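Human:
Take a look at this sequence-structure pair and walk me through the tokens.
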Amino acid sequence: MTAPVRFVFVIHDHQPVGNFDDVIEQAYQDSYLPMLELLQRHPGIRIGLHTSGPLAEWLESHHPEYLDQLASLAAAKQIEIVGGGFYEPVLAMLPSRDRVGQIRRYTDWLERRLKTAVSGMWVAERVWDPSMTSDLAAAGINWTILDDFHFKAAGLADDQLDRPWLTEADGKTLTVFPVSEHLRYVIPFAAPEATIEHLRFLADRRPGGIAVFGDDGEKFGVWPDTHRTCFEEGWLERFFSLLEANRDWITMSLPSEVVRDEPPAGPIWLPECSYREMTEWVLPPEKQMACIRARQAAKTDPSFATIEPFVRGGSWRNFRHRYPEANEMYARMLVVSNRLARLEATGPADQAAFDEAVAATYRGQCNCAYWHGAFGGIYLPHLRNAIYKELIAAENALDRAEQRPAQWVEAVSSDYDFDGRTEVRLSNEHVDLWFSPTNGGMLYEHDLRHQQHNLLATLDRRPEAYHEQVMAGPGQARSIIDASQLATFKQEGLEKLVRYDVTRRKSLIDHFYDVGASAQAVAAGEAMERGDFATGRYEASIRRNPDRMQVLLTRHGNVWGIPLKVSKAVTLSAGSEMVEIGYKLEGLPASFCQHLAIEFNFAGLPAQAAGRCFRNEAGEEAWKTTGLISKPLLIVAWQATVAWLASGPFRLSQSASRKAALSRSINRWW
């Protein structure tokens, strides 16, 4: 008879804030519902289930009967409800107060709605930081699960990973289960018997050992071909039947039961870490390839085998280095979070508005739009838009919580993005403008507060490791990435469309081009930059009046080596939706002849997708085509780029009439 083993099976179901209803509905029909129905037919199968807060709220609105059934299975002790941060934040990026607040709020919601106790939690993307231990304990959490990759990085051997461990910080302790990477890869992609044989191996190695599986529920029905494999071809039915047939030696245990019955192996302090693939994705492309090569070499070369567990990539936090857009969202989130903390300390005038702001802030911390990888969504515009929508909504609610006047205007400065340089914020009740003087004097965030939309939720085009596969063309891919990770590209000629941005895809970026340059050449990146203003340092000053404020940005630079001074003023008045922008150029020689191209970008929902586009006042879809649809407006991927090259005052030439037009235009705005 085979020795006994305890099998802990945990599923994580998640949909991000801002995902489309039809996408979530499809996942529900293909994965969440059939899994629940299958569990009802196999009462001997006991699992831990984490349903993220955004998905749980969607289910409450669209399929409350699903949550009712979850409550019944939890009451029968077939399912243990696993908690977490309400809106699936990466806890490592949050201040301690928000970590605890997110967890407690979701625990309260789950216990109230599902009428069951919650003692453990899912750590989003298994991004771990040792400082999280005391916060999880303070939030009432007794246990969590992390990848065995974390434990190996701490120096534990394979035969030490079949039991729970205890970790500690500030005198607070937490039980942590190691999740088997082997099981993550064979379930459900190898025959069900492969998992049974692995459990038999573990049982024979140490009777009474514990095997833990923990992974995305979407791999059972949502991932490509998995609905057919798991449900139509019966993989899960066979797997569950095998587990039940071997229940004389396989005991399916809920995590809290193991915590109650099994003393931890001892204390272990886990390093900052995530799952293996995540530590690769965070690296720049060339470093990512180097990390993968090193790991492959360590696995195949016996002389390196012992160091393979310690070949780790980068820190999740450095997605904010790879993608400045992620850092902009993060910094914006902290501005709102800090404002919440200050108001909580002094007491809000409107508690309901304050509570609304807390919920919106937490939604704006949903992790998916802050990073990129197989499951990260910073390249998805609707997820970036959703983050900004929530953060802007939180600011609007805080205005009400503070009982701010109906009309106001404000200009403030600080190092908002933590780069050691000062940024400037110009706001009123209608718009919110954020400037980076040291980076071309650019406008990097442009919020429409009533619409709760950031027109500059843009994304720069930059190299990615998988572009190697794209550039090789169809059927020519050569990559060291695992074959299972290779993408299939549906669009012919995609390799010809790969381009990278030289400057940030933001607004008020000042380019100088030769007079012969065309809009098409600029869009294709073929026009040569002749000045040093697009990325140069501007000096900033703020002019304040009670109901009207102005940010003045000035740079002494050069074009073709010719000294030149460019000043741009952005003015905002209380009560006005108008943003006034004026330019002034000084030191132009009489013979100077160049294009001044002022770049603006506008981001929104994608074109050519039913229900996901902007409409004009007549209700007609706007921006129906990609490419150059009018002289100044260029739609590129998910965002629009506007560059005025040759209209009126923006073209600089030796013509006296044009110089006069330039002066008159500036005086109107100044």
Summary: The mean pLDDT is 89. The two ends are 88 Å apart (CA to CA). The chain is about 35% helix and 20% strand. The longest helix spans residues 324-346.
